[in-house]
């Protein structure tokens, strides 16, 4: 009998893990989730590297320019804006997009011209790369706006840089050297392939550039919550000092006792933001939580540490 009970509990845990996760029930339809989904699909199709949630320093405004994602392949750099819009979209005379209906039904939201915004982001990114020693050739950088939401509706004819849901759903994995159909016009360009050294340096720069903190929901790390013993153990993990956090579970299938190993490394400002120090470790309860301020929401969100694999903290 005990064998049947244990097996039933194991199956229940697995079902909840893979098919019903309360922790992310409201995140699955968020802009952040759509963004990571687009990045994953572009990497799968083109074999390049997608950098998500960049916060590139803008020398002209002394602030940071948020960029949804940058896709890097041997032939080009594509700055992509992801608009997870649901509803009927019209375009005004100044280029703004007005979205009516959608998940908020009676709401109307106005978005500044997304393509103009992405072009501005590309200009900031190009200047940032030049400051760090990489000058892109003409044709090696382009801009796209992707609309991945199936509830997007419009009667407007968008320029070729805007990839509507109807076009996006037909994107299929193809050979990295073969671009056919709408894919050729959507993400390919006439730019020459970059030299290996430039390509490697470009990936290093973007890999060490400032980003939003979480890979679950784009947001800014605020603090840890939990038992006093655990928050005291985690008190040394601060944005100004720590570069990266990774979480490891110490139990099988979620059975008690459940403890988590939190691994972190201190920031090394001498190596362009990458961590060069040894990894530290603390062990805390799985009930401990991490608090984020999401990029696309005014409300803070708390997540179980057990549901987060890693966090990269921007300086």
From TrEMBL:
Leader sequence residues: 1-17
Domain NERD residues, every copy: 30-148
Keyword Repeat attributed: no
Presence of keyword Signal: yes
Record keywords: Signal
One Pfam match: NERD
Protein name (Swiss-Prot/TrEMBL): NERD domain-containing protein
Organism: Brassica carinata
């Amino acid at each position: 009998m005990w064998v049947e009970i244990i097996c039933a509990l194991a199956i229940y845990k697995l079902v909840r893990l893979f098919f019903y996760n309360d922790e992310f029930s409201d995140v699955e339809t968020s802009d952040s989730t759509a963004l990571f989904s687009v990045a994953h699909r572009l990497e799968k199709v083109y074999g390049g590297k997608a950098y998500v949630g960049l916060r590139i320093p803008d020398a002209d405004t002394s602030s940071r320019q948020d960029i949804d994602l940058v896709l890097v392949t041997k032939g080009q750099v594509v700055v992509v804006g992801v608009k997870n819009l649901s509803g009927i979209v019209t375009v005004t005379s100044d280029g703004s997009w007005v979205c009516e209906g959608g998940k908020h039904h009676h709401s109307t939201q106005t978005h500044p011209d997304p393509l103009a915004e992405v072009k501005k982001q590309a200009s900031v990114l190009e200047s940032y790369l030049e400051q760090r020693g990489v000058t892109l050739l003409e044709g090696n950088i382009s801009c796209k706006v992707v609309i991945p939401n199936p509830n997007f509706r419009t009667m407007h004819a968008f320029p070729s840089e805007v990839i509507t849901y109807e076009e996006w759903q037909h994107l299929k994995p193809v050979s990295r050297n073969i671009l056919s159909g709408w894919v050729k016009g959507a993400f390919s360009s006439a730019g020459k392939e970059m030299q290996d050294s430039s390509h490697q340096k470009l990936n290093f720069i973007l890999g060490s550039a400032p980003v939003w903190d979480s890979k679950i929901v784009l947001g800014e790390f605020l603090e840890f919550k939990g038992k006093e013993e655990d928050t005291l153990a985690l008190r040394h993990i601060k944005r100004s000092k720590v570069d990266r956090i990774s979480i490891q579970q110490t139990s099988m299938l979620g059975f008690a006792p459940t403890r988590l190993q939190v691994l972190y490394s201190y920031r090394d400002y001498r190596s362009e933001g990458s961590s060069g120090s040894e990894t530290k470790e603390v062990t805390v309860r799985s009930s401990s939580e991490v608090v984020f301020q999401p990029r696309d929401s005014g409300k803070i969100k708390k997540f179980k540490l057990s549901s987060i694999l890693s966090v990269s903290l921007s300086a």
